[in-house]
Structures are given as C-alpha cells and as structure tokens.
Specification:
The protein is about 5% helix and about 40% strand. The chain is mainly beta and about 350 residues long. It has two domains: about 35-170, Jelly Rolls, CATH 2.60.120; about 170-344, Jelly Rolls (Sandwich). Strands 1, 2, 4, 7 and 9 form a five-stranded antiparallel beta sheet that branches. Strands 3-8-5-6-18 form a five-stranded antiparallel beta sheet, with no helix packed on it. A hairpin with a 6-residue loop joins strand 5 (about 90-100) and strand 6 (about 105-110). The longest helix has 16 residues, at about 1-15.
Length: about 350
C-alpha cells in the first residue's frame, strides 16, 4: 500500500511540473553586453562653397588610449538635410584621420551624398568599420571631413565613433598608404588617357608580420565617351574590371559594377536619379572597401605592386573620366609590429 501511494504521489508531482522540469523562477544566463565607449567628434558642422565657407572641416578630438584592448572601431556619419535645405546633388565626400608621425591625412571612409535629402532614414547615419586605423585613432587625434559641394547650401554633418572593448583578432596593427589619389572626384586618376600618376610601388612587409592585406576604396566619375554598348559612359557608369599585379602577375580583381542602388534604404531621394546602378557606388551610400589578402611568402622582402585599369580610350567626346582611389596596406601581429615601407 505504501509503495502504491508513493508511486501515485510521484506521478502527480511529475504531472504538476508538466513536460518542462526546469524551475520557472530561474532566469537563463545572458551573455555579457559588449563594453562600448562612444566618442562624439563633429557635431552639426557645415561644409559649403561660397561666402567664405569651406568644403572641409577639421577638428582635434580625444580618443581612448588603451587600443590594445579595443576589438572594433565603428564610425557613424549623420548627414542632416531638413526641408531639403542642402546641396541637392550626389556629391563625393570622405573623412580622414591625420597620422601623427608623417602628418599625412589618411582616408578612413568615403560616401556619396544622396539627392535632396540626408540620412534621416538611417538610425545612426552611415556606418563604416574603421578598425584598420585604430593605431591612429588614439589619444589626441585630428580628423577632417570633406564634401565636393559647389554651393552655399552645402552639407551638415555629425560624426561619432564606437570603441568596442574586447579581445582583438591581433594585439598589434599598423596601416600605411600605398597611394591616395582621392582629394575629390576630379582629382582622381584620369581614365582612358595618358597621365603621370604613379600606380607602381614597392612594398616591404616585416617577416614577423602574421597577416597583411590591401584595403582599397575606388569610385569613378565622369560621363566620357565612347559609351559602352549599353549606353554607359565612363567612369561613373561603365562597368570595368581592375587588377592588382603583384611582382608583375595579375593577383587580385576589383569588379566595378552595380551594387544595388535601387535597394538603398535612403529611398526618398526624389526627384534625384538615385536608382540606376553606377560603377561600384550609389548616391546615399558608403563607397565599399575592397580587401585583398597578401600571401605570407611576400613577408620579409620587397615586392612589386601595380594597380591596372581595364583598357579603354577616351575619344574626347564628352569630357573626362576619373577614378578616385586610395589603397592602404594593413599589417597585424600578436607581437610588437613594424610598419610596412612603401617606396616608388
């Protein structure tokens, strides 16, 4: 009898608990939230052209100094245009950090402004991962923001950075430019004509480097002819394949083709011509970064670098074509690192 009562009690207990025997009053452990330090830099600064205004603005800011504990760095750019009171055209724009050793400005991000509107449809504006530049984004740091605007309305920006603490992929990193022909859309490398821009370099990466890669931003400008068979002029519209040659051998490809302009979340650019695909960029979007990993066999010696455009000849029928381009070499290691050396 006692055994029967015990079994009955056990069954009733199990039924009262249901199928889930997990205690109801214990919360599941939650992962730790990432620790983020936010740094505001430019705050509603205006860049314009006319009446003494400047197309660029500069500012010195204070960033965290414990960069060995920083996992990622994200930059957010808000572009304000209330009541369409801004430059209505799709303008070339970028942001730079100054290297404290060379005093050279390094392009850390590029974007093209939208027609007629700002970034109000994006919660924090444009987002750009700038972790590759964290060795420069530390302590007292100079920044510059530029827009190729040609009227007094210009553009108004706020820029802030999120420094996420955590274990980085590598403890140490460094970045140096291979070249920068990126001051504006029309200060880029002429396409389809002879020019004197140096696209050939020698790069030396220390043997102790653990990983290295190239970081390139490129955007075309102009409507030069002859048009392609589909009516696309160069270099804004014409789809092209560029190559990076390492020691004289074609090693990497950059396909400049459509990236989905019609899917842009900034989809209120009326009456602008924002939907048709350009060659590698869109109005109201960040110009994408192109990454190319370098083989470890190149470390410890000097190797040749050449950036090569696809063959095409401008027939002078509709102006000029340009490619604004910057390429950096990024190196990383878990041991103290030596910067790459780039020479002509």
């Amino acid at each position: 009898m006692k055994k029967t009562l015990y079994l009955l009690g056990l069954i009733l207990t199990m039924m009262s608990c249901g199928d889930d025997n997990t205690p109801k009053d214990i919360d599941e452990p939650q992962p730790d939230e990432p620790k983020i330090t936010n740094v505001k830099t430019f705050e509603k600064v205006k860049v314009a052209f006319a009446d003494g205004a400047s197309q660029s603005a500069e500012k010195t800011v204070s960033f965290p100094t414990d960069i060995e504990n920083i996992k990622t760095v994200k930059m957010y750019i808000q572009d304000f245009c209330p009541n369409k009171d801004c430059d209505e055209w799709d303008r070339f724009a970028n942001i730079y950090v100054k290297d404290k050793t060379s005093n050279e400005w390094y392009e850390i991000g590029r974007f093209i402004t939208p027609y007629w509107v700002g970034t109000e449809k994006l919660e924090r504006g444009y987002e750009i991962d700038v972790t590759d530049f964290k060795s420069l984004l530390t302590g007292s740091t100079e920044l510059k923001i530029y827009t190729e605007t040609w009227n007094a309305k210009g553009r108004t920006y706020s820029v802030d950075f999120d420094f996420e603490y955590g274990t980085p992929d590598y403890k140490y990193s460094a970045v140096v430019p291979v070249f920068q022909y990126n001051k504006s859309s029309i200060d880029g490398v002429p396409y389809g004509k002879t020019h004197d821009f140096d696209m050939d370099k020698q790069i030396n990466i220390a043997a102790t480097t653990e990983i290295a890669y190239l970081r390139t931003i490129i955007s075309g400008w102009g409507h030069a002819t002859p048009n392609d068979t589909d009516g696309r002029g160069c270099a804004e519209w014409c789809y092209r394949t560029h190559h990076i040659n390492i020691n004289g051998t074609q090693t990497f490809e950059h396909n400049l083709e459509g990236i989905g302009c019609a899917d842009n979340p900034i989809n209120n650019q009326s009456p602008g011509n924002w939907k048709p695909d350009r060659a590698g960029w869109c109005p109201g979007m960040v110009v994408p970064v192109r990454f190319d990993n370098l083989q470890k066999t190149l470390f410890g010696s000097s190797f040749g670098f050449e950036y090569e455009f696809e063959d095409w000849t401008n027939n002078n029928g509709n102006g000029e074509a340009y490619y604004a381009i910057s390429t950096f070499v990024v190196v990383k290691s878990n041991n103290p690192i030596t910067k790459p050396v780039v020479t002509d």
